[in-house]
Amino acid sequence: MVFFGDLPSPASIFSTYASLAGTVMMIKPMIHTIIPQPVHNFVVSYIKSLVGSRSSTLTLVIMDMNKTERNGMSRQNELYYAAQAYLSSKISPDASKLKMTRDPNNKNVNLYPSEGEVISDVYKGIELKWRYLAGSKKTSTVMDGGVDDETVNWECFELSFDKKHKDLVVKSYVPYVEKKAEVIKNKRRIIKMHSYSTYSLRWESVNFEHPSTFDTMAMTHKLKRSVMEDLDRFIKRKDYYKKVGKAWKRGYLLYGPPGTGKSSLVAAMANHLKFDIYDLQLASVKGDASLRNLLLATKNSSILLVEDIDCSVDLPTRLQPATPTYGPYGASEGSTPLTLSGLLNCIDGLWSSCGDERIVIFTTNNKEKLDPALLRPGRMDMHIYLGHCSFEGFKTLASNYLGLSQDNDDTHRLYPDIKRLIDGEVLTPAQVAEELMKNEDADVALEGLVKVLKRKRSESEKCDDESKKMKILEEGEEDNLTSRRPEQSRVE
Ligand SMILES: Nc1ncnc2c1ncn2[C@@H]1O[C@H](COP(=O)(O)OP(=O)(O)OP(=O)(O)O)[C@@H](O)[C@H]1O
């Protein structure tokens, strides 16, 4: 029991406090004078470490430095971005301050925890706390006699939990966060198209907004289905590739005449998988060494595209000697020039084994011109031929451009005529698309298409007649020659 009568008076409390504070004020400078500063620091940090070691909390720091290194590569901690995406789905309704971003051309805004905000999470009964922190740091590098000052911005997430759960958090919770983040990122993902800049010597990217999808592609249903199924199977088979000891990579060769949809199919594949595209212009690559570096700077889950592989650059093969590259003053730059074997080795070897979910696509108008090394089994897993427009392809295009149903063969009165005229190699899908775009009125656009089809058919029939006549003439010449030959022999 406490009685008010036992408590000291306010005046005596105040005088005790004042004398204590006075004593501390007197002792503090004495301690600093008696104990040298380094010893003082050591004692303080020792006491702190003793207190710290007794704490049962472990904090993992997931840092990200937005620092661009001298070789042009940006150092990125993938775990940081996974945490950022994951936490955006965990924000408490009570949060008082949030960071808000919107990527260019993205419909949705993204909300992230702001500085100091704590987010609680529970995983398999373990309580975890996340905290976001940010700041900047000045660094100085001494180079060539001068000092290069640079400000590095850093951001981090701190993840704190009871020490005894360290293994479970590192081995199970962190992969769980990464998986969840992948799903979230895929939902909001903006596909990027990366091109290598010879000016900045790095990949530069823009948002990829090609509208092509498998629905809009003028291809037979069978071909569409087989490409889509192949892609879907590839994505699901991470464990399978690991088990059979193969890099998780798939190669596609798209070939066919100009305007048959090779580039459109690449876009449809990227949109289907939500994969970025790295557009590799071989002409801008100096040699095998720089090719290796720039391929290693590409991200996982992406498509490496080499368009017009037959004519993009004159690649020396294994048998041809490679001419060394020369600098502006004629001196060798010390790099081996780009070779076909360098390209293929890099794609098959180092690059594909350093990453996951790699897709490589080569396109060409002339498959027969390609080096056999490119066509070797196991190199390009699927060869896809895109040809002239079929009636099935036309129906897809008429649905895209004129909004006509593609379910029947007689959606429009002109469909039977088109079906009859379009068969054979008459028009490419690009030519059909061009005709359909000329008028929004389906009657006018389709009449225009019928006219073009008739003209093309009669032109090709004329051509056929001409070539038949030529053949007959040539055969006649040949007969005359052969019938004269015995005579000639005989004269001889
Ligand atoms: N199969 C197709 N399905 C849908 N649209 C197509 C198809 N083929 C061509 N097109 C249309 O024609 C245009 C040109 O096609 P695309 O660039 O994809 O052809 P390509 O085969 O890559 O041509 P190139 O060999 O000249 O690069 C596209 O923008 C698209 O509108």
TrEMBL record:
Sequence segments annotated as region (Disordered): 457-492
SUPFAM superfamilies per the UniProt record, alphabetical: P-loop containing nucleoside triphosphate hydrolases
A matching Pfam family: AAA_assoc
Bias kind Basic and acidic residues: ranges: 458-474, 481-492
Catalysed reactions listed for this entry: ATP + H2O = ADP + phosphate + H(+)
PROSITE patterns xrefs: AAA
Keyword Manganese: no
Record domain AAA+ ATPase: where: 248-390
Cofactor: Mg(2+)
Keywords per UniProt: ATP-binding, Hydrolase, Magnesium, Nucleotide-binding
Family: Belongs to the AAA ATPase family. BCS1 subfamily.
PANTHER family found in the cross-reference section: BCS1 AAA-TYPE ATPASE
Protein name, UniProt field: AAA-ATPase At5g17750-like
Native organism taxonomy: Eukaryota, Viridiplantae, Streptophyta, Embryophyta, Tracheophyta
